[in-house]
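Possible regression after last week's pipeline update?

I re-ran a chain I had predicted before the update to compare outputs. Posting the input and the new output here so someone can diff against the archived version. Not blocking, just want to make sure nothing changed silently.
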Amino acid sequence: QVQLVESGGGLVQPGGSLRLSCAASRSIFSINMGWYRQAPGEERELVAEISSNGNRNYADSVKGRFTISRDNVKNLVYLQMNSLKPEDTAVYYCRAFNYWGQGTQVTVSS
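New output (post-update):
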């Protein structure tokens, strides 16, 4: 079992940046980690994932703008989001196995 706590969301203008953090309650050294998002009325979708050995995968909609990274010493996973667009507005969730955090709201609006 693992508890996940996301932070770093907020309101940002189009073109701005945010960095989300996901803190895990146990070692994530051998765990594939992912960031997902869910907009109102939409299904939850994969944004980015990083394997235990550092391989990354991104949704086409965020390639070149978002970067996922991990710190296995601090048990943290990050999502650096640049050049944000209004369509990035959603609740962002961290996932490990079938465990989810509570989510953090990201709103991109002028």
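Follow-up from reviewer: compared with the archived run. The mean pLDDT is 97. Marking as no regression found.
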